[in-house]
Amino acid sequence: MVRTMSFLRALTRAARMIRHTPGLSDGLVPDDAVLLDAPDERLGPALVAAAEGEYEGAAKLLATTRESAEWENRDRYVSRLAAFARNRDEWLGSWLGASPRDADALLVKAQLAVARAWESPARAERLREVGPLIDAAADAEPSDPVPWRIALDHARGTHATHTAFESLWERAIRRSSHHYGCHVAALQYLSAQWYGSHRECFDFAEEAAADALPGSLVQALPVRAAFAQLLTGEPTTSVQEDRIDAAADLAIALSADYAAGDPWPAEVRNLLAYVLVARGRWADALAQFRLIGPYATSFPWTSVTDDPLGRFLRARDGVRTEVASTMPLRGRGRGARTRAHYS
Q1: What do you get for the CA distance between the two ends of the chain, in Å?
Q2: How do residues 157-195 score in pLDDT, each as one tens digit?
Q3: How far is CA 85 from the centre of its chain?
Q4: Which of 6, 117, 187, 343 is spaced 20 to 30 A from 51 at the CA atom?
Q5: What pLDDT is recorded for position 27?
Q6: d(CA 221, CA 201)
Q7: Do residues 335 and 286 make contact, with C-beta atoms less than 8 angstroms apart?
């Protein structure tokens, strides 16, 4: 009798999936239209010009962000331009050769040096060697918080004490009290994987989110803390699960402040989708995949795979299947929230 009931449940689930999965593709862009880490309309032309060996577009873009105090955009663009320069040293070299004291070129140089040092087996030693480059970038534009975000990442890799880290943190937020990148760097330092704990990480994230400006990505810090805990694979208590779900709910509210297919919150939405999938909140996850549109991001998927785009697409397909399996065979219904994990 038990085997018969199990078979019937499995058969019903399969029938639901077959019936409803195709219809749940509504609002999802086709697989071949999904882009990984696509640049926005301002960064795109600068990268195209850089590929042709021209640095003027990048120089103008970063100068605009500096002069307009667009620190969040500046941080993103510097990271992307440094990533480009990893395989095109001559491009950055030409820029620095023409303007050796340019605050923007020095910032890209510092970001690139730190990124390379992080990959070295002698990470801490290599990072200490590039410290003067961060100082040079900070001195070139004293009001810019981005060199201090780089300094916070640098400090984590050089095993800085909490006292030393707090000193850097104070100088960072003095320049921009709600800078998302600096908050992310601090959150990583406080995570259980580095020099803190899950509780310390969550406490910091929740306090920062409560103080954040409306629409600020800082409100997504708790879901980053949730991701850090889920990534460990450690068992969670009911209290911890409630905290993770509350973080996801806050990020869902933040996501709703932005239009569907907006590239600006794409990384936050990718992260939120990952956490919702891990919590088995299939309907909520499907809603975020629809809002993501074509903008898949390497983070968080590279944390669990060498094929981030493939993992994104598989997760999206899996969510459709799970939602379909909870819908009634006849008529339309809403997917039930479950607690199963998906990977």
Answers
A1: 31
A2: 999 999 999 999 999 999 999 999 999 999 999 999 999
A3: 21
A4: 117
A5: 81
A6: 9
A7: yes
Ranges of the chain whose pLDDT falls below 70: 1-25, 327-343
**DSSP code per residue over 17-75:** HHHHTGGGGTTPPPGGG-EES---TTHHHHHHHHHTT--HHHHHHHHHHHHTT-HHHHH
pLDDT at 329: 54
The DSSP line for 239-299 is HHHHHHHHHHHHHHHHHTTS-TT-STTHHHHHHHHHHHHHTT-HHHHHHHHHHHTTEE-HH
Orientation angle between helical segments 43-51 and 71-85, nearest 10 degrees: 20
> How many CA atoms, within 13 angstroms, populate the side-chain half-sphere of residue 221?
31
Say if 182 falls within a structural domain.
no
* 4 domain-assigned: no
Q: Which residues contact 1 (CB under 8 A, 6 or more apart)?
A: none
How far is 271 from 224, CA to CA, in rounded Å?
7
Within this chain, do residues 48 and 25 fall inside the same structural domain, yes or no? no
Structurally, the chain folds into a number of domains equal to 2
121 and 211 inside one domain? no
Would you give the distance in Å from CA 170 to the centre of its chain? 23
Amino acid in position 183:
H
pTM, 2 dp: 0.88
